[in-house]
Structure formats: C-alpha cells, structure tokens
Amino acid sequence: MLRLPMFSYLQPKSLPDALAMKRDAGPDGMFVAGGTDLYPNMKRRHQEPKTVISLMGIPELGRLDGRTVGPCVTLSALSDSPTVRQSYGVISTAARLVSTPLLRNMGTLGGNLCLDTRCNYYNQSYEWRKSIDFCMKKDGHICWVAPSSPRCWAVSSSDVAPVMVAIGADYRLVGPQGERVVPAGRFYQNDGINYLTKQPDEILVDVRLPAPNGWNAVYHKLRRRGSFDFPVLGVAAWIQWKGKNVAAARIVLGGVASYPQEVAEAGAALQGAPLSDEAIAAAADAAYRPSKPMDNTDFDLSWRKQMTRVYVARALRELRDRAGA
Fold it and tell me: pTM higher than 0.85, yes or no?
C-alpha cells in the first residue's frame, strides 16, 4: 500500500493568510484544493511538500457567480450548475468527463486547470521509477519518451483547460507581488516540467468567462474507458458566428503536448465562410499536421494522431448542427 509521507497541514481562512503561510513554508510548501492530484503524487513521491496549505476554507475561492468561477468549485458543482449548463454548456461537459463521480465530488476546477502533466514513465511508484533510474521530470536526467531530448515530454491531461483556452477565458492570480490577469492561452507552456506560467507562491483566485454572445463551443474526449480515464486526445472547438458564416474560430488539442495546444491554422481555415464539409476537412487536416502525440500514454501513438483529424471533424460537425448552418 502506498502511504502519504509526514507533512504539516494548514487551513487558512483568507488569501492573505494563505500567502503568508506559503511565504513561511518556502519551497517546502504547496497549495492544495481537492487533493485528487497532489495526494496521489505525494504517495508516489512525485511531489514532497513538508507543508500543505489547503485553499478550501477561503470563501471567495469557492464562489460560482455568473461569469466568475472560483478555483475551489468542485467539478461536480461546476457540471451540475444550471447557470453553467445554460450559458457555458461546453464547460459543464468537460467537467462531467473528468474521472468518476467520487473524484469529481472532491476535485476542483483549479486543480484540473493546474493538473500535473502525466507520462507512463512518471506516474509510477517510487520503486518502479527507481528501477529505471527515474526520469527527467523527477529525480532523473533522461526523458525516457525521447532519450535524446533536452526537455520533458510529459503530457497535459486536463479536460477543462483546453476548453478555457478555446473560449478565451482569463485567469486572475494573486501572489506576493500583487494581482495579475492572464489569458488562459498564456497560462500554459509546452514543457512537461515547467508547464504553468503561474509561480509556486501565486494562487489562482478565479476564472473569468467571456460573455456568451454569438459563439458556441464543444469538447470531445478520446479515452479507452468511458469513465475514469484521462484523455489521450481532447478537442475543444470554438466558433464565433456572423450569420451563417464563421467570423472566428479556435481549435485546441489536449493530450498531445505538454500544454493545451491551439492550432491557429485550423481556426484560420474556417474563417469568413460557412461551415461546409470542405472547410471542416481543411480544418481537420490543419489540426492533424502539428498534432504529435508521444508514446507516453494509452493507445498507439500513430492511431492517436489519426484520431485528431476524426475528432476535430466530429466536433465541428456538431457545432454546425447546433447552429443549423
């Protein structure tokens, strides 16, 4: 049985208290919300904080108020919210596709947005990883997915993050240096180790959603089992309509890189014309080309790449059917 290491557990009641506790703990302190990612990682010695600072007791982080959502809102509350379902159905869908009901009852929006990157060589017990001399992401020096690579190729497996990038949400962060607002697309970077632009002593305070005016979005997820599994491919498709024509579009891929990967060429292939079969095929081909899944998750990587084209086309056809275009 994997057991948690010894650690101190703190429960601040305000943001200033949480920031002060993190300052006092230094590099040995980590923030936690639902803990469905951090605590298993601690059991496997991926992350080894000496002090864990819970954010769940800070009231403002748990609010769900119109276009502002706190990071401590559980995934179950997010997917079940009538407001979210009506105005931001794509977020409700993505939250509902995360893991199982039990874990969604504990897991939070902020936890899923900041989810640690995953890899077959990393998400193993300490003894297993030690037997291969560890990996670049933790305790080792080689990325076993691409041994000659200077960087880690662990993959982004969040379901909600690609959606937030696609719809153009903003994240508000608060830290010792003050407050800043970061577009979702700039919150992530393509590095399996340094996958967030958020600093360790910053707190994701809320997510600000765009007004639901004239756009629609969908999220499709590929995984082996219809529940529980992380995505091996996620496709978030967003379209801004102008009549029956596409005024703007974004296609964002999850599960194929260390960050939610927006494919600008795919969105550009749709702009200024109706969402025809030819336009959908062109966008799917554009998304297929830069999709480079690695051999670090489930299924054959070449098949997963082929599915990029299939899932992008499927998502766009759903958007067309919804619009009656």
Answer: yes
Structural domain boundaries enclosing 160:
61-208
Q: What is the CATH number of the domain that holds 30?
A: 3.30.43.10
C-alpha torsion sign, points 95, 98, 100, 105:
negative
What letter would DSSP give residue 147?
A: T
Q: For residue 264, how many other CB atoms are within 10 A of its CB?
A: 12
CATH of the domain at 196: 3.30.465.10
**Average pLDDT score over residue span 182-198:** 98
Nearest residue to 212 (alpha-carbon basis) of 308, 44, 86, 32 = 86
Domain count across the chain? 3
pLDDT confidence of residue 66:
87
User: What distances in angstroms separate CA 243 from CA 93, 183, 187, 214, one per listed residue?
Assistant: 26, 27, 32, 9
Q: Model confidence over 4-14: pLDDT tens digits?
A: 999 999 999 99
Residue 119 lies in a domain: yes
Which of 60, 6, 29 lies closest to 199, judged by CA?
Answer: 29
- Say whether both 48 and 95 belong to one domain: no
Q: Is 247 helix (H, G, I), strand (E, B) or coil?
A: strand
Alpha-carbon distance 198 to 180, whole Å?
10
Q: Look at residues 184, 324, 153 and name the one whose alpha carbon lies nearest to residue 252.
A: 184
For the record, the structure tokens of 182 come out as: 């970061």
Assign residue 229 the CATH number of its domain. Answer: 3.30.390.50
